[in-house]
Structure formats: structure tokens, C-alpha cells
Amino acid sequence: MNSAIDFINYVQRMLVEGDFSATYKYALLHAIADVCVESPNVTVNGKLPISLDLLADKMLRLYWNQARPFGGAAQPQQLHQNSNSKKQIKIISAVQSIQATGLYNINQLYKSPHYKAVHKVAKDALKEGPLWRLQILAKQEECFLYPHDKGQQHIELKAGVAGYFREFYHLITYLARAAWIDKIISFKHNQYLVGAQANLPEFLFGQDRKALAYAKPLLQELQKNTCFYCGKTLNEHAEVDHFIPFAKYTFDLGHNFVLADRGCNNSKRDYLASYENKYKWEQTNLAHHGQLITEQLASYVECDADKSLAVADWAYQIAHNSAANLWQNKSEFRPA
Ligand SMILES: [Zn+2]
Asked: What is the pTM of this model?
């Protein structure tokens, strides 16, 4: 059996390394945690089978209220749950059509003739995607929570996993909800509905975006107008990338900026880059250009090469301890 630390590491990696183009996986993670807490006779070290019927029902409960129109405006509308603005996820569409008949209370749903059909939609959606994709990290299957057995009508949480979900229920559901909210806000087509609230996290914890704008021309010069990662010549879409991802360390440090083309930047996302890239970053941004970066950027952003290196070493140490995947290039990952 794995330790509690392994479990927390895995969940943390799942949220960073997983591919979340829709919100299904947050719902599934939440649903699994719910079932673990609600099931009787769960032993700390035991396995826990969970029927897909039960999981689908939990997903339905989580999405039920989210299908209601959102926003007090004259024309309230539904929030999108995926990156495709044209197509709502199936569970939400199914729930909406039921709510359109005037049935708004989920407790009445169970007694209604609609339940069977909408439950089937939820179960099919579960089996089509999130159930087998939740445990794909950095494009590779890592079945830490349950083995993938597509022939079964249930999943079986591995020994000890249910115990961890019970022990860390608050932490896991808090993370799942926060990431879910972030994801909803991040969809461009939701932003006009979310309005000023969309800016709240940025307002409270964001950094001055101007620092990136000041860094850009300097990096263009230092990198001879090539992408830090792939070396190709940059066009006007070059983007300033946080070498240690902003999601891991949410303060701007001048030496942590590199310039990348859009393809590399989008692909790298919140991953740490490979050791090869780290070595290159240390050589260029710290050793060769450290002093110049400080001179040029210190009026706009904190510049402390030693601190940048310490933060980087911390991030790589944690990645190594949790066996995370490091981003090498658009099509390749390396173990930390
Ligand atoms: Zn590139």
C-alpha cells in the first residue's frame, strides 16, 4: 500500500498533469470522495468497489444545480462546462431538458419517469471519458486510485485509497471545487456571465502583468529572437513564459522569465521543464545574463537570482519526490 503522502502527491499531480478540457474529471474526483465518506464499513486498508450506477448518480447530483440559468441579467444563461462554446456537456443538456419541464428539485427527480433516462446519460458520459481519463497524467496512464477494467460495472479503489479519501475528504473536495471554479471562469464564453467575479482571483492574488511586457524586449535580445525551448525564430506571437510555472510559485521573479513561441508555451502549461531545459535556464538567465536582467528589470519586478535558483531547486525536488513528469518538448515528457 502506498502512503498518505503518495496519495496527496498523486492528487496534486493529477490536477496539474491531467488534461481538463471539460469539468467532468473534477466531478468524478468529487464523486469518488463523496462515496468513500458515505459508504459504511470502509476499513482503513481495505479496497472499495464502487458501482458505476452509484458514481453516475453522484455526478448527476453534483451537476444538477449547475444546469440552472446563471446570472441575474435580463437573459440568464447556462454556464458552459467545456472549452467548446458551441456544445454543452451531455449531463448538463439532459438535466436542462428535465428542468425545462418544471422539475427543479432533484429529490423529486428520483420519483419521476425522467430519472432512468438522465441517469443513463450520466453513466454513459462517465464511461465515455472521465472514468478512464482521470488517471492519465502527462498523456500516460497511471492507475493509482483504481485499475482500469472497462468490462466491469464497477471500479475498485485499491487498498487504502478509500481510507485516504476519507481522511483527506475536506482537502480533496476543496481542491476539486476550486479547480472546477477556476476552469469554469477560464472558459472565454463564460466570462461575460461571470462578470467582475472572473477578475477576483487575479485582483486578490495576481501579479502586475506589466512586468511581463517589460521583460519581453529584453528577452528577445538575450535569446536572439528564438524560442527558449525549441530554438525556432519567434514571430509576433512570442509569449513570456514563467520558467518555473506560475501555478507552482505565484510570484514574479525577473530571472524566471523566458520567451517562447505560442506552441511551446501552450504545450508546457503548468509543467516543469526537463532538467536539460533547467540547465540551459541556469546557464543563460542566471550565469550569463543574471546581472543584466537585474539591471534592466529590477525597477518593475523583483530580481534576485539566488532566490530564483532556490525556488527552482525546491520545485524540482518536489517533482522528483512525487515522480512527476517533466516537459521536454511538445511531444515528449521525461521523469523527474
Ligand atoms: Zn518553441
From this structure: 0.86
